[in-house]
């Protein structure tokens, strides 16, 4: 299997049980998650050597995050310790027509206040087969943005493939600032993962969202092609979520590489147990497919099936095995009891 | 915002968690609810000054009900204290083809044994912009019926609009008795809220339910028109629930006023988290719309959207904000995570 | 009502709450279940005298199983005490495309190590109106298989009708061994309950599954007819589950007796609260219908409706009353609140 | 073992978990309990045939109470069904210096509204070896008092020993009324169980409580002697609780019979898990001892040890075995793990 | 009753249930608390008009804090809304020899970043009878310190008594800084509440802690006297906690005023349910006593009993009534069930 | 830090929450534990490289056990996978006079059916500084006994110190068989850990338990001395538990080495949160002390304090840090909140 390094933030996630609102529960479920950590956990579960690099304060809450990552088989030995606090996000899960609700409390987190010089990238990436990060990390602070960029640059220098999931969060930064930074980062990225909105809003590829609402699947190949032309990506994956309600989504993706395009199977997911981390589980599935040398269609199919299953699992982490994903790829989505 | 007074019963609600049957759980979830109290909580949540008038015994359970109402911003200062006990209802939530089940234990409650003379309506209604009650209150006892009637009469005398939600409960009284009382009360009501069954069964407006089963939406304007003609209501709202199963309902409403009729949007709600209080949340939404001077279509749209969201919220109370309702009215029922 | 005897294993069932995976929960829900015990509980709930015969060790866990059966009205006085341990099964409930997962820990259970001589069948069956067992019991061990066969033989000798639910479990025994034993047992069975797969795989009735996948309903009468011809069954019931996903199933059945065939109503069940025990609740419903002398269509309708409701109830046991089943048979699957 | 009949009320008991106050918990633990029902459960657990006679409404909550009694092995076949509601008591468990708090909601319960003629005592007591009731039953209503008295009278007539636990509850009736009724009932009682306060307050045996506070143990023999002389009891048991705090009690008892007195061992119980039902478990232990022919000291020792253990068990019911009680009688209160 | 204004921070409190460590629980209990908020809740519970002044961000978590305060009857209308985040503290409850553990995450909270000019003290204190704050507020930031000082100064100017609880937290600021600020604040304080350590460490009153460890009670009058002489306080209350273990504390206090000293009763508290807020409940009890005109001994007795009871209540808030406190003052700490 | 290898069984531990009996809870808390695994977790928590060697089946339950060990930092890479099942123990926690109760379901576990040849001890112990096992492992089966013996023999050959905790479990084997095996094993043991009962019952050192009950502490040095003389141990640790009740124990130990004896501090532990694993946490503490070169008194003090703290922690594992243990050694058992 491959050795993969992911860099980003892991947060404490606090959510009322079930579909309760914040004001209705005397307990909050405690979990941990964050774009790149979720990818690392998925990849460790698929059997890879997955290392997660971040910065966490020296307290019992952060200790607990590390303990959980380690339990899931993630290599946590490169995590820096320091800073005042760990980021938190409060999540209220929606249902039917009621949307899920996130309250971020991640300002001043240890990684947002990172000094890029603390990270010795050549050492962290030694022997690695893959480097992954997302657009959330550069949104956290100038320091975090520089740290991510240095990681990507170093990986490119060492010939390590770099994947990047756009993940634009409007609660974290303005579109203008995001555009500027993400376009600059594109130069260090081999595999881009995002949605058609990102193509238009961040990378300036005209999709026509304003006019047409959700674009037809038929437009996806063209969008991907233009991204490849504009930024020279090795591969471009565009995920597609159709939000019928908070409990029912359509989910699929398109992948373009080597001048060809591949459509993934479309899943109707109902009910959704937890859609947070859906995109991350796609990234992890794609990295798994590519890093293990599958052909593009197989890698995409694995990625879409993995992320379909994620929606049935509580928490940010996609706790599924390769065998489970492959069963779904093979056509068994009937949910029959295995006994 | 407006000052609204609601009068009725608030009960202790005890329900096994999730979809468990009464015999399956060693704990019962404890909440409070009742038609008029639910309306008061909704309206307080929408920013109104909402006062709830009732009678509760002097014990810790009733104290807790008051504490919760107060927490939701309801004015509880006019609640009378006395009587032996507080009404209880046990609720077992159904799923799929299994219906929800209510066991009432509300006989001999403090409000059922109210002496109407305890209520000084002119003082309670001083400065009020709206008075609301439902057909559950007169079903509780002769005293409660008289108290409600005196409230409505006093409101009318003071020029305060009166809304009334029919809410016929066959476990509480016979159809004959209900008809007699509710027809008498109609004289004091400006805004009637109910279903087409109520129009036929209670108010004698021939709908043809027996022959045709669920009547076509096309009949609603005629039914409303006849109610207006017969009783002189200012407005008539008819809600429409299509129970596909305990987990999946269609939900909409029609509103007639000033000689015109308005159809609300129809929502397919799936899964239903809790449908108790659905009608009350509609009443609150309509009162909000009317009391804030919206036009009839806007008031109806707000009411239908508010009550659609209620189905996604556990408990009797509709814990949503005006902004959330307006987002749904504006078309966003996709349940996308806001982050 | 009738006196019914069921023989088989009851296990401790341990499952993470809701849709959590095994690794996600610090608690496991503790329940009890097993094919024949589930049938006994259903029948006791329908008002019959239902006795459950099994073998359980002398410890607090088994004591608890007995206490629960007794609470549900099952006669537990014939349960043998001895052996080392009680079987356990761990159940992880799936959702959407993720299948439920069973981990069996039932080897070396008290009943698997039963000495058939411990059971005095003439005494156990004295006065009984019905004997029921399933294909799980003979799969447990040679001793359990012989004990079941002796029970069925004795019942036949005493003129007591015998029903048998095929319930083939590939984790317990090979198809070859299952075929050999179940064909031998067929000689003692009056009423066979199973699926079309069982007809083909176990009883050698060519259905054409390999070629066509799920066979058309139109083929069911023919399959049943051939089973009757081949084995001389009094009645053959074939259940039909369409697994759209772990959360959504179609459910129906066909019943053949006296040269005629009867189709049950088809239910779309969504969401499924717990599908374990779905087949057992069908068996219990059918036994209820037949033992109370209903006509075949009515017996089948009761059985299908009973098992439809089971899917909305957590745990193995179908905790519904005759009145609830009959309401669904009568057409009320709307899930409306009764109040 | 013996056949024992107990008559009284069983209530739904609702309590916040742990030491939470009523206002602090969104769930209430649901259990069932009541003086005589608790005795019946204890005795069934000790292996006796224990029948519980009461009156309960026809609803799912009462059904659940019956299911639990039956699970614990109590014969529930003589329970009358009718009436409007089942009594409820809300219990908030104290800790340290904070007392436990009971809110009764038992007015108008099915048994309070019993018509004594509904009970066919000669049939109910046929074959019985013991009849037990407490001073709570006559406090419920005139009808309940008469029903209890008729039960006791009938038992005496049939030569069945009658035990009576005074259990004076000041929230249910006045001291005057209690005195009048309990003195009258004393004529039908063989075995009296109570405290020294009862001797003085109810039965007019001067103890000197006002002057001295808690009386010295040395006074107990005299008090018991005077009770025997005044009312002709066969045996008198006086329990002694020293409430150091809600979490720490001393517990013992004295028993007088045949002109002799016996002191039980004194236990210091810390922490108390649940002291409700402590007295009932003593009654059950004493009945067990006497009905199985133990000598007075052995019967008393068993009773005190059984009730000591009750304090470590949540809920009203004393879920301990004879072996566990005997181990404590034998001196093992060390709480060592058995493995 | 009196109108009391308290100013300070209210935090989200997150704690694993029971005695679990941070790493052991998938849920955290969610509550709210903070020195001055706790005092306000206590006083509202005692029947006073208690207003709490603070600054909280505009998000659902803060909304929930406000809802809870309002539910407990606290006037929340003067709470400022703004800032980035609300302070959080994580609490792990110890047991026996294991200490409780607090992880603060309160940096950058809305109140720490307050601009003192946002508070219009003359308006906030209009009509007030008492002003209370603690040494935690000035520890938060320079702005918070100034805001508190301005509040105290304004109160003094308006002739409103000011009470101050020293509450030195070494995790928040250095001893040097604390000394400087608290000595300056002493000029505006009428009633000082603290421990003998505070007298020595903060106010420079030599107690001899280093030499003797915990000082003898006999020294308390002298310490209080010197504090009065040095700073001119109207009253000085010194609480005394003897930590035998995390589960068992001794608790008492001494109060000096008008040249006389008063000793409170000493309570042994075992087990401690939650000792957080113990000091705050004492402050509230003392303010209640003084503001309602009790004599010093009675005020002190009420305060010590109130805070004794607090230790039996989960969460920061002391949810007890005046009647419950008075029962304990009157000598009933036996924890007997009231029924 | 040191590299430590422990060999033995890890079981699934299932227990009702709090003090509930097996029959009272619908959920069982799921944890993992076992003598040697507990030691490995402790040592990993103290910062050592702790490897745990065992045999576990290939299923999700065992996977979960491994995940948890790995989360706590234990090296699980040498765990063999195979066998039918994983051992289970059911634990009901006692309180006050009621003892805790263990139901073992560990027969036929993967490790009990181990083939000693599967373990390549020279490789497993390469580079190790310590080898630890207990008397539970040889009690499981002949194969497990031989595997343990080969591990100890190999360690001795490699010059690695071997510690052995007697842990005699009468539910697993007879005293005769235990004696025979444990005396044989003594030849490979450097450090013996046990109680005075073990010295007498297993190793034939006359203590006089029968005559005197619990022997005086004064006898401990003599007992240890005779064990050293008889078996040539490097060190002998004798723990001493005084079970006042299930909730209150005294706890201390004595350690003899190099001809000298050392007494540990005696702790009164009240309340006990969980005493399972108390002895294992002592072993881990002693190994920590010895392996880090502390002097005997310091090693013993650390071990006794570590195991004292264990009693306050739920589950088998002693989740404390070196700093927490050292604080208690340093005298702080006051349980004061650190803030």
Describe the overall structure.
- Six copies of one chain form a homohexamer.
- Chain A has 339 residues and is of the alpha/beta class.
- Helices cover 35% and strands 23% of the residues of chain A.
- In chain A, the strands form three sheets. In chain A, strands 1, 4, 9, 10, 11, 12, 13, 14 and 15 form a nine-stranded mixed β-sheet that branches. Chain A has a four-stranded mixed β-sheet with strand order 3-2-7-8. In chain A, strands 5-6 form a two-stranded parallel ribbon.
- In chain A, a hairpin with a 2-residue loop joins strand 13 (248-257) and strand 14 (260-263).
- The interface between C and F is medium-sized, with 29 and 28 residues.
- Strand 3 (27-33) of chain A pairs antiparallel with strand 3 of chain E.
């Amino acid at each position: 299997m491959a050795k993969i390094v992911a860099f980003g933030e892991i947060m404490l996630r606090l959510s009322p049980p079930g579909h309760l609102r914040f004001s209705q529960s005397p307990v909050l479920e405690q979990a941990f998650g964050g774009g790149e950590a979720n990818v690392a956990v998925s990849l460790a579960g698929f059997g890879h050597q997955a290392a997660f690099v971040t910065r966490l304060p020296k307290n019992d809450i952060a200790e607990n995050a590390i303990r959980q990552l380690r339990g899931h088989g993630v290599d946590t030995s490169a995590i820096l310790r320091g800073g005042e606090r760990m980021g938190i996000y409060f999540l209220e899960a929606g249902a039917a027509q009621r949307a899920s609700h996130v309250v971020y409390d991640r300002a001043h987190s240890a990684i947002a206040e990172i000094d890029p010089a603390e990270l010795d990238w050549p050492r962290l990436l030694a022997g690695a087969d893959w480097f992954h990060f997302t657009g959330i990390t550069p949104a956290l602070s100038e320091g975090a943005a520089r740290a991510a960029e240095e990681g990507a640059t170093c990986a490119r220098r060492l010939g390590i493939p770099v994947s990047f999931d756009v993940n634009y969060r409007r609660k974290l930064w303005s579109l203008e600032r995001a555009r500027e930074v993400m376009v600059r980062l594109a130069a260090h990225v081999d595999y881009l993962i995002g949605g058609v909105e990102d193509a238009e809003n961040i990378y300036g590829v005209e999709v026509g969202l304003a006019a047409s609402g959700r674009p037809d699947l038929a437009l996806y190949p063209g969008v991907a092609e233009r991204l490849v032309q504009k930024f020279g990506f090795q591969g471009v994956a565009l995920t597609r979520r159709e939000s019928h309600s908070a409990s029912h989504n359509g989910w699929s993706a398109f992948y373009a590489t080597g001048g060809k395009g591949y459509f993934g199977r479309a899943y109707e997911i109902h009910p959704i147990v937890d859609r947070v981390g859906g995109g991350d589980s796609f990234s992890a599935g794609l990295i798994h497919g590519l890093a293990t040398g599958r052909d593009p269609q197989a890698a995409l199919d694995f990625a879409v099936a993995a992320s379909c299953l994620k929606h049935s699992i509580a928490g940010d982490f996609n706790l599924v095995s390769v065998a489970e994903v492959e069963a779904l790829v093979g056509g068994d989505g009937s949910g029959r009891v295995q006994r």
